[in-house]
Amino acid sequence: MAPSLDISGDFPILARQVNGHPLTYLDSAATTQKPRVVIDAIRHYYERCNANVHRAAHALAEEATAAMEDARAKVAALIGAGDAQELIFTRGTTEGINLVAACLTGRFGPGDEVLITEMEHHSNIVPWQLLCQRTGAALTACRVTPTGEIDLEDFHAKLGPRTKLLAIGHVSNALGTVNPVAEMIDAAHRQGALVLIDGAQAVQHLDVDVGRLGCDFYAFSAHKLFGPTGIGALYGKAALLEELPPYQGGGEMIEHVSIEHTTYNQLPYKFEAGTPNIAGAIGFGAAVDYLGGLPLHALREREASLVNQAISHLKQIPGVQMVGEFRERVSVVSFLVDGGHPHDFGTLLDQQGIAVRTGHHCAMPLMERLGIPGTIRASFALYNSATDVERLVAGVEKAIEFV
Ligand code: PLP
Q1: Ligand 1 contact, 93 CB (< 6 A)
Q2: Are 231 and 204 in contact (CB under 8 A)?
Q3: How confident is the model at residue 2 (pLDDT cuts 50, 70, 90)?
Q4: Peptide bond into 373 cis (omega under 30)
Q5: How far apart are CA 348 and CA 355, in angstroms?
Q6: Alpha helical stretches, state H, 79-166
Q7: pLDDT in tens, 64-96
Q8: Percent of the chain with pLDDT strictly greater than 70
Q9: Are 206 and 170 a contacting pair, CB within 8 Å?
Q10: Rounded Cα distance, 312 and 323, in Å
Q11: Does 32 contact ligand 1 (Cβ within 6 A)?
Q12: What whole-number percentage of the chain has pLDDT above 90?
């Protein structure tokens, strides 16, 4: 028998009502809902083996350490990292990118460039601005086309011997564009640049293999992948991580400390100062296990077809304009409606129990490039169904009657 594609029952929150209506959750690009197994794993840790990791010789500490390191191995395997020592636990994508920007500071100076795109989330813009302020390097952004894709001609024109780092999103959170990262990584490496990929929106929807991509760093967040908030991961090539200075100082990241001098711990602990988010890491591992038990291929196909259905139905509503028209898209449907600000539509949809996000989606330069104040964004995940699409379309039609 074919496995059921309705997994919504695994997510307790999806059974609730909002404003008197069944919840239609279409904000998974902001954060995904959590399956019961993830919630249970976190509860189990606190109820059964709460202890600090790595530093004590008692049973609870050993259990907590084993559970956390097991989670690290699972998360590393999920993205094809060759070795769990290349997987640093962070607070999320934002911290992963800031970590790289902080640790690479000594490699940059006047005349060097960081290349990004106009499509980046603010977390993949501001850390590079700060790096440039510290070092005198320059930040350059390659253009996005009016249809919402990276302008590859402009990318190749801007990539050059001065480019020391290329930092790009794998998937746009605002539009859902899947960027041609493999081609861009190869081109950047040919110029001798390092490459960081912001994978926040990719890991749930694509099979990511950092070994095959060949990127130097890959940052992502557990909460966009059915895991808890406050935990994420940064992949980095071991040889490179070995060369970099530590990010923060404190316990755990050291091998030996005297007042005059400190030697650092081995990877990945050199980059994990202080008590880590142990419960979060364990919840992250549970989310990876959960994903591994799903008929992922079939679920992703269904999700893609829901996104296409949503686009084709919304397009037929008079006054609705889709934002972004491109070859490869996942999860996100961004649109505008004539005669009303996106925020008004967000409120009118919320009154019908439909959760979407409105505004600039932390991508102000992209909105500026497209000449719009923001969009209404419906973002899908593996637990959404055709009913969610029907409710969205009916909800937009109803909202239009009010404005
Ligand atoms: N990059 C992209 C593309 C995102 O969508 C997000 C979150 O929306 C981030 C980075 C930042 O992720 P976090 O807030 O989990 O650090």
Answers
A1: yes
A2: no
A3: low
A4: no
A5: 10
A6: 93-103, 126-135, 152-158
A7: 999 999 999 999 999 999 999 999 999 999 999
A8: 99
A9: yes
A10: 13
A11: no
A12: 96
| Ligand 1 binding pocket includes 175 (Cβ within 6 Å) | no
The predicted-structure confidence for 192-226, as pLDDT tens digits, reads as follows 999 999 999 999 999 999 999 999 999 999 999 99
Residue with CA closest to ligand 1 atom 4: 200
**pLDDT tier at 1, thresholds 50, 70, 90:** low
In this structure, what are the phi and psi dihedrals at residue 201, rounded to the nearest 5 degrees? -95, 0
The distance from CA 385 to its chain's CA centroid, rounded to whole angstroms, is 22
Provide the pLDDT confidence category of residue 113 given band limits of 50, 70 and 90: very high
pLDDT value for 184:
98
Closest CA to 331 of 383, 393, 394, 399: 383
pLDDT for 177 beyond 80: yes
Task: Please indicate whether residue 361, judged by its CB atom, sits closer than 6 Å to ligand 1.
Answer: no
Mutational pocket test of ligand 1: of 221, 331, 361, the residue with most ligand atoms within 8 Å of the beta carbon: 221
- Can you tell me which atom of ligand 1 is nearest the CA of 120? 3
Cβ neighbours for 125, distance < 8 A, ≥ 6 positions apart:
116, 139, 141, 365
Instruction: Report the separation in Å between the CA atom of 123 and the middle of ligand 1, taken as the mean of its atom positions.
Output: 7
- The confidence band for 160, taking pLDDT boundaries of 50, 70 and 90, is very high
Atom of ligand 1 nearest to the CA of 198: 1
Active site residue 362: yes
Q: How far, in Å, is the centroid of ligand 1 from the Cα of 31? A: 9
Q: How far is CA 71 from CA 54, 87, 277, 341, in A?
A: 14, 11, 12, 43
Residue nearest to atom 14 of ligand 1 (CA): 94
Summarised one tens digit per residue, pLDDT across range 309-345 is: 999 999 999 999 999 988 899 999 999 999 889 999 9
Kind of pairing between the strands at 24-25 and 354-355: parallel
Residue nearest to atom 8 of ligand 1 (CA): 30
Could you give the CA distance from residue 118 to residue 106 in angstroms, rounded to a whole number?
26
Q: How far apart are the first and last CA of the chain?
A: 48
Closest CA to 131 of 160, 152, 102, 110: 102
pTM of the model: 0.98
CA distances from 19 to 16, 272, 337, 343, 353 (A): 10, 42, 23, 17, 6
Q: Is the CB of 135 under 6 A from ligand 1?
A: no
